[in-house]
Design goal:
Blueprint (H helix, E strand, L loop, with lengths): L7 H7 L16 H12 L5 H24 L6 H13 L3 E5 L6 E5 H12 L5 E4 L4 H17 L8 H4 L8 E6 L8 E6 L6 H10 L14 H8 L8 E8 L8 H10 L1 H5 L6 H12 L3 E4 L2 E5 L10 H16 L9 E5 L2 E7 L3 H10 L6 E5 L4 E4 L2 E5 L5 E5 L18 H17 L6 H14 L4 H10 L4 H16 L9 E6 L5 H11 L3 E6 L23 E6 L6 E6 L3 H13 L7 H9 L9 E5 L3 H14 L18 H11 L1
Helix pairs in contact: 1-4, 2-3, 2-22, 3-19, 6-12, 8-12, 15-16, 15-17, 16-17, 20-21
Length: 662
């Protein structure tokens, strides 16, 4: 999207899929994350002796792995990644982000990006700039609603903290380029992590589940739709079409949402004792108060359900089902088939009634308007299927990829476990063949083989995969049947597995996983990949000020001496700093070692310039990270007991990290 000179190695890195995991080197190994992961997993071991033995072995694996990284040569990708970082640093006028579809990265001018976002938000019938930040007021309303539900006996008192939010932040909007559309418009994406009504929305989502049974039109995934449509025979006067709603979420009529809840209240109230008027207030709070932050502005969404919200898809789906139920009896013919996937509809219609059917769909509500795509040359794409009408009218299916789709998948150079790369290749091959009728499978095997080769997969692996998959229909069906049977096998009296994450580092994490799964029987360890190419991408979401961040390990320096204090908080940092300030002014109440140092020495701490050392939302991980950072800082005024729980087996590893920082 930009005409700028760059080296081949930079172009190669920037063109990688955002999911590619970059290899670590000796200088950026996530040692603290790995130690924390191991300790959280060992927390489920009841025997102290076994816990000490496993911890000692884990520390040995980690220590040996760190030593190997100090001596090993740099990876083949590392020079290219450094060159890409330097290129992006030297071109601040550019934006690097992922595309809306296609697993590719897009480079565009920052000015062009902001122009397109501003143009999108200029629609005053949908968006309105707010003078103030509505986050705190909405958080209070949501928490008051939780108290109201507790008072009515609708929520157990001990559960109220599950639905309350104490440190909400505004939802953030950003745009992803739709490279498959003319003019490359942006698709608005709203991130609602930490937003005021997020927790309360999950309560409403559970209560709306009964309304999903109002219609049997939904497509679960491409596989189930392929099994239903493959082999269906069309009449000569029938045609396949797809209807697509224009901007569904911002156009969902809220008055219809309220009407549907009232109309079907009997089905909902069987599962709750929440009164109808209170439930309508819940709907208003959780899906009708849409707003977001863009740069320094707060924007109210005037129509539709809140974009990015937990309830958006459910509420929109409820309206879409009612729309279909409303349309069907008004058609002058018997509708043979209609299936829905979010905002896309697949229909089989009489050729003579396509236009009037579209008109009836568009009569449901003036805000919900549909576009129509008809089959061309007896072919119609739907989801990732290409539906093909044969000469006899029989429908067959082919694996479909849009003309604008890239051939990117997980690059073989990615620092992922080999098993993950193999699984990716198998899934790609399996998907292409399962979604295809027998006559297309050989061609699709070749297409997938070419894709895998383009992403660096060895020819030997590709050859084995192609040999495993027979082009015959029976072989594929047998494979699917075997997988269903395997998935249905239940081991009686088997204890439930707890899935826990382990940060992936080549040469270290696989050995730790083998150790932990051998000695911690009730835990299934899964790798976390956090060093991805997407870290090179431009931050498009508005950043929260440091004082409004929460779930952090922080460091406060003393202004009058080299002493510092390490702490952690789930509250806003400004709230925690204010509490420290009050403790420093009150000599008669016991505070932290920070306030004790300030009072005894007459010193002042630099609360305005507090630094974030780490981020963890889970309390156990955050407390453990706090202890690690206390051990890594020479001049902490924290109590010695603040590091209780850190085993001495990590002392050598932490000492090396500490020495490297000085």
């Amino acid at each position: 999207m930009v005409d700028v000179e760059m080296s081949v190695e930079v172009e190669d890195v920037l063109g990688l899929s955002p999911s590619v995991n970059l290899p670590y080197n000796a200088n950026n190994l996530p040692v603290l994350d790995i130690i924390t992961d191991v300790e959280m997993i060992l927390g489920d071991v009841e025997d102290p002796g076994q816990r000490r033995a496993v911890r000692a072995n884990a520390a040995t694996i980690l220590r040996n792995g760190i030593s190997r990284y100090k001596n090993q040569p740099q990876s083949a990708l590392e020079p290219s990644v450094r060159a890409a970082r330097s290129f992006l640093h030297d071109h601040p006028e550019l934006v690097l982000t992922r595309s809306d579809k296609g697993k590719t990265s897009v480079l565009m001018l920052k000015e062009e990006y902001h122009d397109k976002m501003n143009s999108l938000l200029d629609d005053r019938s949908v968006y309105k700039i707010q003078k103030t930040n509505p986050t705190y007021g909405l958080q209070k309303r949501c928490n008051d609603m939780v108290d109201r539900l507790v008072g009515l006996g609708c929520i157990d008192r001990w559960k109220k903290d599950t639905y309350k939010t104490q440190n909400a932040v505004a939802p953030k909007i950003y745009g992803l380029p739709k490279c498959h559309k003319d003019g490359i418009p942006l698709r608005p994406i709203v991130s609602c992590l930490g937003s005021p009504g997020l927790r309360l929305s999950h309560l409403v989502k559970d209560l709306l589940k009964p309304l999903k049974s109002l219609g049997s039109y939904d497509v679960v995934n491409s596989y189930t739709f392929q099994q239903e449509i493959d082999g269906l025979v069309l009449q000569e006067d029938e045609i396949m079409v797809s209807f697509d709603v224009v901007s569904l979420f911002t156009n969902v009529p809220l008055e219809i949402v309220i009407y549907l809840v009232q109309r079907h209240w009997r089905a909902i109230e069987e599962h709750t004792n929440v009164p109808l008027d209170v439930f309508l207030d819940l709907i208003d709070l959780t899906c009708m108060q849409g707003y977001f932050q863009y740069n320094d502005d707060f924007v109210r969404q005037l129509s539709g359900v809140a974009m990015g919200g937990v309830l958006s898809s459910d509420v929109a789906g409820m309206v879409m089902i009612d729309l279909i139920n409303w349309v069907i009896p008004r058609l002058p013919f018997c509708l043979r088939m209609v299936r829905r996937y979010v905002d896309d509809l697949f229909l089989i219609l009489p050729m003579a009634h396509v236009d009037d059917t579209l008109a009836i769909f568009n009569e449901y509500h003036h805000r919900l308007q549909f576009t129509c795509e008809r089959e061309v040359d007896n072919r119609l794409p739907f989801l990732d299927l290409l539906l093909v009408r044969g000469s006899s009218g029989r429908i067959s299916t082919d694996w479909y990829r849009k003309p604008s789709a890239s051939d990117r998948c997980l690059d073989f150079r990615s620092a992922h476990a080999y098993a993950m790369k193999l699984a990716c290749a198998k899934e790609l091959m399996g998907r292409a063949l399962r979604l295809s009728s027998p006559e297309y499978r050989e061609t699709n095997k070749t297409r997938v083989g070419d894709m895998l080769r383009a992403n660096g997969y060895p020819r030997s692996m590709i050859g084995r995969l192609m040999a495993e998959w027979s082009s015959s229909s029976s072989s594929t069906q047998d494979r699917q049947s075997d997988e269903v049977v395997q998935n249905e096998v239940v081991v009686p009296d088997a204890p439930p597995k707890i899935f826990m994450g382990l940060t992936y580092v080549q040469g270290i994490s696989p050995k730790l996983k083998a150790l932990l799964q051998k000695d911690v029987s009730n835990v299934s360890v899964v790798f976390k990949y956090v060093n991805k190419i997407s870290r090179l991408h431009t931050r498009l979401k508005a950043a929260d000020p440091i004082q409004l961040q929460s779930g952090v390990v922080y460091k406060v320096n003393c202004k009058d001496c080299p002493v510092c204090y390490i702490g952690h908080t789930i509250s806003y940092l400004k709230v925690r700093m204010a509490r420290h300030g009050r403790d420093c002014r009150n000599e008669h109440e016991e505070g932290t070692m920070l306030s004790q140092h300030a009072i005894e020495m007459g010193h002042v701490f630099d609360f305005e310039n507090v630094k974030i050392e780490d981020r963890e939302q889970k309390r156990g991980r955050r407390e453990f990270k706090e202890k690690l950072h206390i051990m890594l800082n020479e001049n902490c005024c924290n109590k010695r007991t603040d590091v209780n729980g850190i085993s001495s087996v990590y002392a050598g590893i932490l000492a090396d990290i500490k020495a490297a920082r000085t």
